[in-house]
Write a structure and sequence with these properties.
Distance between the termini: 54 Å
Number of domains: 1
Order of helices and strands: EEHEHEHEH
CATH class: Alpha Beta
Shape: globular
Strand content: 25-35%
Radius of gyration: 15 Å
CATH topology: Transcription Regulator spoIIAA
Structural class: alpha/beta
Largest sheet: 5 strands, mixed
Strand order of the largest sheet: 1-2-3-4-5
Number of helices: 4
Helix content: 25-40%
Length: 126
């Protein structure tokens, strides 16, 4: 990937599960602000999955944004899951003592959450 690639992201919603695929550099700037604002526009979210597998870089601004997104999710009673963060990302979370603050999952775990969500009954049977 190009080292100068600005953060891009794609949001996909499946009922009350939102999956955000993040790509590029997660660093302080307009793209990171747009990322946070887009997430804060989501409604009726039970699970917010951030797929970080294509993130090339992050800085303190990104960590701050992730903490804001985590607070937003908690206020909405939603679970926030970080999926497949690269090694440098996990090491930075460890170094800043934030690894215990975020729930980190593999892609397989995230898929099982989505599959379980699909099998969940949509109405009550009396």
């Amino acid at each position: 990937m190009n080292r100068n690639m600005e953060l891009t992201f794609q949001v996909e919603c499946l009922q009350d599960v939102a999956v955000v695929n993040c790509m590029g550099r997660m660093v302080r700037g307009a793209a990171l602000d747009n990322f946070r604002r887009r997430i804060e526009q989501l409604e009726k979210v039970r699970v917010l999955v951030l797929d970080l597998s294509d993130v090339e870089q992050l800085d303190a601004g990104a960590l701050g944004t992730l903490l804001l997104v985590r607070r937003w999710a908690m206020q909405k009673s939603a679970k926030l899951k970080l999926v497949n963060p690269p090694l440098f990302f996990r090491q930075l979370l460890e170094a800043t003592h934030l690894s215990s603050v975020f729930e980190i999952s593999s892609l397989r775990d995230a898929i099982s959450i989505l599959c379980a969500h699909e099998r969940r009954p949509r109405f009550a049977v009396a």
